[in-house]
Amino acid sequence: MIHTTAALLPWLDPATIIDAAGPWALVIVCLIIFAETGLLIGFLLPGDTLLIMAGILSNPVTHPPHGVFGVNVWITGLLIGLAAFLGGEVGYLIGHKAGPAIFERKESGLFSRKNVERTNAFFVRFGGLTVILARFVPIVRTFAPIAAGVGHMNKWKYTLYNLIGALIWGFGLTVAGYLLSLIPGVGEFVAEYIDVILLTVVVGTVGFVVFHYFRERAAAKRDAAAGQDTVTHAEAEALTLDPKSFEDGDHPAR
Known about the structure:
single chain, mainly alpha, 0% strand, elongated
């Protein structure tokens, strides 16, 4: 395939961009995964898709000799898993330090009481296992660490479940993407159209973030119009899970 952009503007050649980015491309992916599992703004990010694409782009066929990130898929997966684990730990610490006060804020594009309630429902149903299962549920994986911290889930139990979830999700989905690229024709297709694919990933990620932000903003405005845009101290306390909710079984929220 003749890359028109590369022919017209050599500095837009995918190979040139990838070589220049080097390990920084992987750093950016890890930062996105960290943010999605450790910061309240993280729910805006497309974690699952990014992990699969990271695995596909780790195939040496896409960009010899070690794929787009310059290291093999095992290192890529472990670093992404580590980023997911650290994000979960930071999210827990934020919730633990801030307490229920972290929920006392106006509805906005970055915070929604409904997201907290949805996360709490997972803990009520699955107990501490939510920390693992939430990795595969958008929004919940962002709020679960904070909810666990606010509710003072046993730290060692949380860390164990967080580690398991981070490895299954971060490392597992990355390797799954790599295995997908081994299907005959897939790796070659990615190599042939890598410029289009990378552009799609970047534009898609930005578009995903913008879409979800404005959707949450619209919901916040509706709540404001109904006079339900602020979480009071009493409501924040009610959103705090009872420690029994973190046991592996069905327990009511406080």
